[in-house]
Write a structure and sequence with these properties.
heterodimer; A: alpha/beta; Rossmann fold; 32% helix; B: 3-stranded antiparallel sheet
Chain lengths: 152, 446
Amino acid sequence: MKKTLIVGIGSILRADDGVGARIIDELKKDSLPKNVELHAGDISGLDLLKYFHGFKSIVIIDAANMNLEPGSVKVFNFSEIKKSNFNDKFSTHGIALLETLTLAEKLDLGYDIKIVGIQPFCTDFNLKLSTLIESKIPAIIGAIKKIILKNA
Amino acid sequence: MKGKLSKKELNINVEHLTRVEGHGNIEINIKEGKLERCQLSIVEAPRFFEAMVAGRSLFETQHITSRICGICSTGHCMASVKATEDAVGFKVSDQTKRLRKLLLHFETLDSHLLHAYFLVAPDGLGAPSVLPLIKSHKDVVLRALRMKRQYNDMCSILAGRHTHPISVCSRGWTKLPTKKDLETIKRILLSQVDDLNATVKIFKSIKLPDFIRETEYVALTHPDEYAFYEGEITTTDIDGTVKCRDYKKVVHEFDSAHSTAKHSKNKRDSYMVGALARININFDKLNDEAKGVAKALNFKVPCRNSFMNTVAQVIEIAHCTYDSIRIVNYFLKIGIKYDEVVTSWPTKDELPNFKVTPGTGAGVVEVPRGMLVHEYTINDKAIVEKANCCIPTNQNLANIDLDMKKLIPEVLDQPKEKIILLSEMLVRAYDPCISCSAHMLDVKFV
């Protein structure tokens, strides 16, 4: 059984941007297999790598601009997206998710990284998710549970 | 010919300089053989943290101000609790101080490592970023990530999480480490000796540019130790020391037209803070291991080459590692006094008789990028009425500009790309944290 880390990323101060953290809160209410660990927060950048240590399968949940209809949920492998070339923006404050995952992939540390991207409807300052994204929560949780089952 | 430069025309405008923290532009302009403009412009928006603290309780300021920076959050937290304690007269125990010193070491280690490996090493190894290094120097990148993770882990054990410490508060600690925590920290520190030696080896192989400019260096100094957490302010241009509360006798802030962040000076037109300033002032207080690293890296004081700030950081990595081992061993020997645990706010039992003596106080600490000052005025209701924060990067900005003005004419015979790289490397050597430095600018409209 592969050890799975599920990480929810985003700022809960910015409405739908906080959907990753919100999903982790929801998953905490469920009984999940013992080999699954959850982590939520406003974490990105290099510090994220530290949490990967000791896991094989990593699921990142994040609001993502995928040019899809708001509320669309898409599960994809990191290998499916265009990588960062790092050269245009590299500060340790500014290492975003893309740079961190590129680094992890290039280092070839054997992580299987899946991303659950959610097209946000609203990322203004608001502590609540938009109604549209709120209504998608069961579907997002369903998608994540499928990944967990596959790894079991 | 005096005043004439070898290039008649040159225009360099590096927008959003990479591998520094935050947004800054390098602007160099030579017209008809005369250096017209040569400066680092700070274009980041001010963030008004001082205004956010005003009106809040002294018991929560450290949690607010630590958010100024995700890298120096512990440093801001320390300056904050020290300023509150100085303002209202809270005294803290020897144990509290020693543990704060330990936590501050972990942050210095984390920040220096990040700067040396991720932001500076690519220049020295001829790579545009850390990414190509994975192919040519995979072991180096893995080592850097391993060391960083370990520093983060030690911060988490001591402070509750690796950024924005939870257990540090005015009056002391809300949670004290167990014997097992201390043993884990000691095990991690001892396991780092090989990585530390390998780090010294790699920086021995990196050739930094030769460059010398006389300037004033400013840092905390302490009679018994290499000052990070406590001491008094001194500079290479003054005799004796200045009390932390009198920091304005040294830190003279002024506005600059090309920057949203304030600049500072003292006896000259600029001064430098940071690892190089600390080592120039306090070299004899470094531990023997750090002095050994200085020797191995051929580093001698006084060093007036700003590029060597990164080498000074590597020396401090050795100092902080071995000083941390010393502090942990001390507590493993004498034990932790758990009855010293405090609550972050006064308890219900304390409240009826809890009195706050109003006053103004300053907390000065050496954070990775240099001397950091927080100053608060607190009233008898424990509310902060006024706050001022002097950030190390601000204090270095005038010095960066003057370094550039000396460096550029010296390297003008080189190709434009090389001039750009050298000016970027110079700014990066200071490890500027521009996001933190942009603060509280008085905006005047014409």
